[in-house]
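Hi support team,

I'm opening this ticket because the web form for multi-chain structure prediction keeps timing out on my end. I have pasted the exact lines I submitted so you can reproduce it. The total is 646 residues across two entries, so I didn't expect it to be a heavy job. Is there a limit I'm missing, or should I split the entries? Thanks in advance, R.K.
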Amino acid sequence: MGLIDDMLNGSQRALSRLITLLENDEEVRQKIIRIIFKYTGNAHIIGFTGPPGVGKSTTVDAVVTELLKRGKRVGIVAVDPSSPFFQGAVLGDRIRMQSNEENENLFIRSLASRGKLGGLSKVTNDVVKLLDAFGMDVIIIETVGTGQSEYEIAKMAHTTVIVLSPGYGDGIQAIKAGILETGDIFIVNKADMDGASKAIADIIGTVEFNFSSNPWTPPVLSAIAKKHEGVQAIVNEFENHYKYLKETNLLENKNKVRIEQELTEHITSWVETNVLNYLGSSGEKQKIIDQIFNKEEDPIAIIDHHIKESMKEIISGNFIKQD
Amino acid sequence: MGLIDDMLNGSQRALSRLITLLENDEEVRQKIIRIIFKYTGNAHIIGFTGPPGVGKSTTVDAVVTELLKRGKRVGIVAVDPSSPFFQGAVLGDRIRMQSNEENENLFIRSLASRGKLGGLSKVTNDVVKLLDAFGMDVIIIETVGTGQSEYEIAKMAHTTVIVLSPGYGDGIQAIKAGILETGDIFIVNKADMDGASKAIADIIGTVEFNFSSNPWTPPVLSAIAKKHEGVQAIVNEFENHYKYLKETNLLENKNKVRIEQELTEHITSWVETNVLNYLGSSGEKQKIIDQIFNKEEDPIAIIDHHIKESMKEIISGNFIKQD
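Hello R.K., no limit was hit. The queue was backed up. Here is the completed structure from your submission:
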């Protein structure tokens, strides 16, 4: 595929087309991953998460500007798991940063969950691999909202940054709701707001309490991203954390966890693609649904029977070719 | 299983134990579902969602009190997809409502995502089925946060209620972020706050714009749940919407969509359980991860090969018994 060569030679246009191809066709996706895989493994992957309204996008902007100043090549994957319908918040980000998009050291891609084969985390992982192969030094995964998807994305990143702000009334509630333990670096943005010092003290207290037995105590940094204040310290901490991961062998562990996650995802999507395609195209699926709906037979017996029958067909090669 | 008989005869203790059993053991889960399936299909399933901080729990409390007053039997499944680590927000709810838990017409169960086989939506679906078989008239699924999980849960409910509040600074942002189209009923809680009338007007405008071509235009209701104001109107709309679904045949469609979703989930979990177990217990999994990490071979070829080999073993019955 000439496109992959072009991408490896630095063409952002080729990179962009490859992402689109990979998102839309499983067979093409697999071909791309097979070729680019050996060029990956050099980027520092940083996840940005936190509740909406804390100025996360502004913080990412400021941080990216600083990274570019330091001569880094930066890729951004903006992920909006809450957007199966609209191209909401993240598209906004993209427009916002479009002025930078001509910069050859910066590449931005938005992902919403509409119509993604095998889920958003799989596509995110793929895009990260492409950006890695492209030669990005830092890849930022920016997510909207807090939830299960953030947890999955945290597992993908080497360094997870949690952005909070004093203005976000439920900041502490958001921490309680489960994202805290994924954080390697905490940022309290909008540090010029009323109540900022209390918020910072609260977060430092919570972090120190929760990470007391951890060899890496996450730094809690205050920032005013809009004015680019506190941004250098944040980027310094990226470097400190990456160094820490390398020195402690945790980087290798994290990369292996990513592979394990991909393994699971690939197995799941293999089955979803093959078994569901088979059942759908053979007309069995609608029959099964009607049988269960009419309570003709117990649902699990019906499904088990059909899984096995379709597996046999798929493995024997009667249904689709694979490999 | 005597427990199922006890449950069908009205024992909340048996119901509670069945949920625990079903959550922790796939084989037992399947047995339970097979038996209870024919007793399901009578409950009105209502999903409550919306951003944190809008008073969603208080609203659910008030609504449940009203439903109980009207003689309904109510089940609540409180789902916290953001909580892989903590037993945060939802556990709070549970404690909050414990005073009611002796009420034989009310049953509450919290679900967090820690260690759930096959994902949270599958367990939620199972608990809904149990509550349905138990004879609940109304089953409320309450979720924390906004995200992909909300979308999945919306697909499970017959009626989706979105709770917002004027105080939630990013209320409109949350709507934009994708939950809007899932809403059948909108509640603007805390209607006595500053800016309430503007917030309500905004939401009515957005809803009317987005649902203009829809035969069901979601009502936008204001409420002060803490003072039980506006709650009767909400419960009336539950009844209106359920009636509408029945009259238009949409109820049957929604139930079939649920079955289709379960079909997909069951297939996925069948594979995850069987293939991943097989690879794990044969020691192949760690070998695959190391091979991919060391870039010895391309990852997709390795995984495909192992999926097929393990499928063959599983189907031929060499590895585990199924059925």
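A quick check on our side: Residues 260-315 of chain A form one domain. Let us know if the file doesn't open in your viewer.
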